[in-house]
Amino acid sequence: MKHELRDKDGNPLIERYNANERSNHWITAICFVLAGLSGLAMFHPVMAWLALLFGGGQWTRILHPFFGLVMFVAFAVLVVRFWHHNQFEPGDKQWLKQIPDVLNGNEHALPKVGRYNAGQKMLFFTLIACMVFLLLTGIVIWRAWFSHLFPIGVIRLSAVLHAFFAFVIIVSIIVHVYAGIWIKGTMGAMVRGTVTYGWVRKHHPRWFEQLMRDKGGR
Amino acid sequence: MALQSLDIKRVSATTVTPPTARSPVGGSVAKLIDASKCIGCKACQTACMEWNDIRDEVGVNSGIYDNPTDLTPKSWTVMRFAEHENEDGNLEWLIRKDGCMHCEDPGCLKACPAPGAIVQYANGIVDFQQENCIGCGYCVTGCPFDVPRISKQDNRAYKCTLCSDRVAVGQEPACVKTCPTGAIMFGTKEDMKTHAAERIEDLKERGYQNAGLYDPAGVGGTHVMYVLHHANKPSLYSGLRDNPAISPAVAIWKGLAKPLAMAGMAAAALAGLFHYTRVGPNEVSREEEAEALAEAKRLQEDKHEA
After folding, report:
1. Residue B274 CB coordination number (10 Å)
2. B229 and B278 housed in the same domain
3. Can you tell me whether residue A148 is helix, strand or coil?
4. Which of A120, A132, B157, B280 is least surrounded by CB atoms within 10 angstroms?
5. Are A143 and B140 in contact (CB < 8 Å)?
6. What is the pTM assigned to this prediction?
7. Which of A47, A152, A212 sits opposite B146 (nearest CB)?
8. Domain tally, chain B
C-alpha cells in the first residue's frame, strides 16, 4: 500500500492532483499568462506597454502565437486527463440554480458534489471551446505563416472572433483563479497536490464518500 | 520615415489627441489621377522606385502589361490594365495607377496595434513609420483597398507615402513630377476637385455620360482621387472597390470591443475583490475537519461490515 499522505501535524491528506497533473496545469497556466499579456499588448493601446515585457512589439508579435500553441497542446493533455471527471451529472442543474447559495458559502444547502462541481465543469467546457476557437482564428490571423491562405473576409472575422474568445477565456480564468483564492485549501491541490479530509467533505462530499468507501474496502 | 517634418493629426494605437494647434490653412492635399489621360507608360512606377530607393526583384511577363502584377513591399504603385468592351462593342483600355488611396478615415491606422506605426498628417497623408511597426499585418486586415504589404525581409509594412518627404518641403510626389501626360496632379484637395470637375465636364461632352470623380465617402473621402470615364462602375478598373468602407468586423474589433472588453475584465477582477471583502473566504473550520475524520472512519467501517 502507498505511504499515506499526512500534513506536518499528522492529519491525513487526500491527493487531488498527482505531480504530472500539476506540472501539466502549470505549463498551461504559464502559457496562458504569457499569451494573455502579449495578446492584450496588441489589443488595446492602454495595454501596449506590456509589449516591453517581451522585448518590444516585434518580439511580442513573434512570440504570442507560439505561447498560444504550447498552451493549446498543454491544455489538450489536461482535457484528456480530466475529461471523465467533468461529465455532467443529475445534481449539476440544481447546483447551478442555487448559485446564490454557492456564492454565499451555504454549501450544506446544495446537492452533494462529486469530484468536480457544475461550475468547474462549465469552466472546463468553456475553456475547451475558447481554446479551439482561439487556435483556429489564431492560425488565420498569423500573418507570418498562414494569413495569405485565407480570403480577407475570413481574416477580418477571425480577428474579431479571436478577440472575443480571448475575452471569454480571460474572464473565465479570472473566475477560476478567484475561486482558488476564495475557497481556502484549494491552492494546495494544485501546488502540493493534496487537500484535507475536511476540505473534500465540505466541497466535494460525494467524492469524499466514494473515496472513503473505496479505502475501507481495500 | 522618422524624419518627417509634417504635423500629425492621428496616430495609431494612441488614445490621446496629438498636438493640433497648427493645421494647414489651405486645407488637406490630394493627388488626382486622371484615368482618361493615362497612357500606361509606367513612368510613375519608375519615378517611385527612384525617389524612394526601392528596387523590386525583376519579375516575369505574365502575358499582360501588368508588371509587377501586384503591389509588393518594394513596389508601392503599379499600373493595372483592364480591357473593357463598351456598349458599342469597342475596346476600351482602362488603365489605373493602383496604390495607397490615403483615406481620410484609414482602416490601416484604425487596425494598427503599434503606437506610432501609422500616422496621418494634418494634410491628410497616411504614412507608415516602419521603425514602430511590429509586423502583425493588422493594417492589411483593416485596409479596404488591399494596399499594405509586409516585407519578408524585415517584417514591416510598406506602401505609398504620397512622398510625404517631398510634400513636406513643398514638392509634389515623384510620380506627379514625372507623369508625361499630366494624368497625375497634386495640390490642395479643393483645387484638385475643381480641376477634376472641369475634366469631367470635358469627358461628358466627349460622350462619357458617366464620367465622374472617385472620392469615396465610405472612407471619409480619399487623398488620392481618380477621374474615371465610368465613375458609375469603378470595379471596371481592375476591381476598384465600388463602395469602399472599413469592414464592420474591423470596426467592431477596433471600436466598441476594445473598451467593452477592458471594462469586462476589470469588472470580473473587481467582482472577485468585493466578493471576498463582503462575503469573506470560504474556510474549513477545525470542527469540520474533525467531523470529516470521524465520518471517514464510519464510512470505512460501513464498508468493512458490508
Report:
1. 10
2. no
3. helix
4. B280
5. yes
6. 0.94
7. A152
8. 2
